[in-house]
Amino acid sequence: NAGVTQTPKFQVLKTGQSMTLQCAQDMNHNSMYWYRQDPGMGLRLIYYSASEGTTDKGEVPNGYNVSRLNKREFSLRLESAAPSQTSVYFCASSARGTSEEQYFGPGTRLTVT
Amino acid sequence: AQTVTQSQPEMSVQEAETVTLSCTYDTSESDYYLFWYKQPPSRQMILVIRQEAYKQQNATENRFSVNFQKAAKSFSLKISDSQLGDAAMYFCAYQEYGNKLVFGAGTILRVKS
Questions:
Q1: Which candidate, B111, B103, B81, B83, places its Cα nearest to that of B37?
Q2: How far is it, in rounded angstroms, from Cα B53 to Cα A33?
């Protein structure tokens, strides 16, 4: 099992460009999450999907959209990248989204110039 | 909103000695979960230990144990017999039943040989 995979691992964008971060899990988990990690602030939830077909906003959703393509895949889209979106992005999944352990992907380092 | 505070931005410990990382949280709930995650330089997030609030017994995982003080809303992590491989960023996280994880800002642990 690969667990949670993310692509790409690194990306540099110019302000105003768009891109999609891809995430897939092979553990048959119901819930998936997108976080961003900034220095001194820990991880903050951007969006999550409690189950296939549902998505909800987290703490910092502005400037992002998500798609739960199927049970395995959960993508994060930046429509018009801004320097404030320079961060490390993590995807995670959990079996039921309650007290279940969240399993994290390796992260994507995104720089917006 | 729930908050998680890690008051120690950085800690150091001598190899083979014991270190305690502090975490406090704010909640009005009685049922919730607390976690410690480890993030080594590889960026991978690894679950270290989990505590259910309804359990009075402190969780332990090999060299890792917690001191859970529910009334004080305190959840510290003790690492015994510290090893070089323990050097990492450690995040405390809080979760209500059926809800999202809220992370603290993290504590960098350095292990000296």
A1: B103
A2: 23
pLDDT above 80 for B47: yes
User: For residue A97, is pLDDT > 60?
Assistant: no
Chain A residues near residue B43 by CB distance under 8 angstroms: 88, 106-107
Average pLDDT (B33-56) is: 93
Q: How far apart are CA A92 and CA A31, in angstroms?
A: 8
| Residue among A42, A44, A37, A9 nearest A23 (CA) | A9
- pLDDT, one tens digit per residue, over A45-66 is 999 998 888 999 999 999 999 9
What does the block give as tokens for A96?
């039921």
Q: Which amino acid is at B44?
A: Q
Backbone angles phi, psi at A110, to 5 degrees: -110, 130
Task: Label residue B98 by pLDDT band (50, 70, 90).
Answer: low
Nearest to B43 among A40, A88, A97 (CB): A88
CA distance B98 to B100: 7
Task: Name residues whose C-beta falls within 8 Å of residue A28's C-beta, 6 or more positions apart in sequence.
Answer: A71
Q: Is B52 on the interface with A (CB under 8 A)?
A: yes
Tokens of A60: 């910092």
pLDDT band at A39; cut points 50, 70, 90: confident
Q: Are A23 and A6 in contact (CB under 8 A)?
A: yes
- Residue numbers of B between 83 and 112 with CB closer than 8 Å to A: 91, 95, 97-98, 100-101, 103-106
